[in-house]
Write a structure and sequence with these properties.
five-stranded antiparallel β-sheet; 16 helices; alpha/beta; single chain; Aspartate Aminotransferase, domain 2
């Protein structure tokens, strides 16, 4: 590999390769998206990005679902520019301002009234992981208990506490000393039913029964301060929770005085076809964790919780960058645009359109075992039939094929990410403002990528 100095003009990178080499020499070995995608973004608008090589791509990653209105939306840019040109400070810790006051009022107005009327809000460090850390401390303080319940396939962050709540063993194993007292329970699925009963109603009924048993049995060893879950697991493979199961989880946790934490870092503000994903099941959480979309693309995270849990002392959770005024201005503008234009309904329609395309591709290629998700949060699982079915009733995940499909997508002008068990699930998280024409183009590019990957596999 050539040195940076020999391939750059005036020692400044000008191509994807040069930028990638610079990253390799200077940035952490922990980098992920940059390593897999190998791109350097130079321009972006809406659902499209352009790289240093001049190539244009449909972006179905959208900063891991953060950019619900796409790149550089005019409403967001105008709000940030107004905030920048005002005389208000950029950062205010937890001191309030007119911008913050408006953000909080609009955010609470967007929530179901029973939850909002009893709600309290804590601004956290600017990541969803920090907000989940705050939620952990909140429920431990309120209940006096120390354990937590999480679910197989869940993802809640990469900090000490949140990684302990995350199911993926890969990042957990090298990190010793994670938060103790976490009990993992099965998450009901249709395609890979953890109970071997074929998914569907049988799966979520067994899951509900098991949860109730664990929280009721005096010898289960489980006395949690809280239970945390995602309504649609993202990193775990785009697994939607059944509505009836969520209602049972809410009933069981309420009857046993276990605070229910809903992590909507990735699903909040329209991603699943509802403004908040928990609304589809008609439940009310005790604690709601939000980040990503709520800053309009800028870093921001909050925890909203029932006032009965507000027992912690001043300074129990803090953070230097929790008062980002530009992010609050961008968030307010984003939320108002979402509501005024009924973006959740649009996301539901576009998600149905994309899912229909993906199922047509599935019909052509048996290597696609499952298409699942809600709204514009969709997953396509690749499988290998040659080894037969696992005890769960589904074929083995095909990690290598999924990786080839991702690379073929890049070659054809489409950015997707992988997730799920063994990284065999292609994930679609496009901006929620995609048009029918965008959806059709994305599906066409994906079909070409799958076709190329399968042909190369056979060659």
């Amino acid at each position: 590999m050539q040195s940076i100095e020999s391939v750059c003009v005036d020692n400044k990178p000008t191509s994807n390769l040069e930028f990638q080499e610079h990253q390799q020499n200077r940035e952490s070995n922990a980098r992920t998206y940059a390593r897999r995608l190998g791109l350097a973004f130079t321009e972006a608008k809406g659902v499209l990005v352009r790289c240093a090589d001049g190539r244009q791509y449909y972006d179905c990653l959208a900063a891991a679902g953060t950019l619900v209105l796409g790149h550089n939306h005019p409403v967001v840019l105008e709000a940030v520019q107004q905030a920048m040109n005002s005389s208000l400070p950029m950062q205010t810790l937890d001191i309030t301002t007119p911008v913050k006051h408006q953000f909080v009022d609009d955010l609470f107005a967007s929530l179901p009234e029973p939850f909002a009327s009893r709600g309290r809000i804590q601004f956290c460090g600017p990541s969803g992981a920090d907000a989940n850390e705050a939620a952990i401390k909140l429920v431990k303080t309120a209940t006096g208990r120390h354990g937590m319940v999480s679910f197989h396939g869940g993802y809640h962050g990469m900090t000490n506490g949140t990684l302990a709540l995350t199911g993926n063993l890969g990042p957990r194993e090298p990190a010793s000393g994670l938060m103790g007292g976490v009990q993992f329970l099965p998450f009901p699925q249709n395609y890979r039913c953890p109970f071997g009963v074929g998914g569907g109603e049988a799966s979520h009924r067994v899951a509900s029964h098991y949860l109730e048993f664990v929280l009721s049995d005096p010898e289960s060893g489980v006395s949690p301060a809280g239970l945390i879950l995602e309504v649609v697991q993202g990193e775990g493979g785009v697994n939607p929770a059944p509505d009836e199961w969520l209602r049972e989880v809410r009933r069981v946790t309420r009857e046993r005085n276990v605070p229910l934490i809903i992590d909507e870092v990735q699903t909040g503000w329209g991603r699943t076809g509802q403004l908040y994903a928990f609304m589809q099941a008609g439940i009310t959480p005790d604690v709601l964790v939000l980040s990503k979309a709520i800053g309009g693309g800028l870093p921001l995270s909050v925890v909203i919780y029932d006032q009965s849990l507000d027992n912690w002392q001043p300074g129990a959770h803090a953070g230097t960058f929790r008062g980002n005024q530009w992010a609050m201005a961008a968030g307010t503008a984003t939320l108002n645009y979402i509501l005024a234009n009924d973006i959740p309904s649009h996301a539901e329609k576009m998600g149905q359109r994309l899912a229909s395309h993906l199922r047509q591709i599935q019909a052509e290629f048996p290597c696609i075992g499952d298409v699942r998700g809600r709204g514009l949060m969709l997953g396509v699982e690749f499988v290998d039939h040659q080894y037969g079915k696992t005890w769960m009733g589904a074929p083995m995940p095909d990690t290598s094929l999924a990786r080839r499909v991702q690379q073929e997508c890049l070659r054809h002008g489409l950015i997707i990410e992988l997730g799920g068990r063994f990284g065999a699930v292609a994930r679609f998280l496009p901006p929620l403002i995609v048009t029918p024409e965008d959806v059709d183009a994305i599906a066409d590019l994906f079909a070409k990528a799958v076709r190329s990957a399968v042909l190369n596999q056979k060659a």
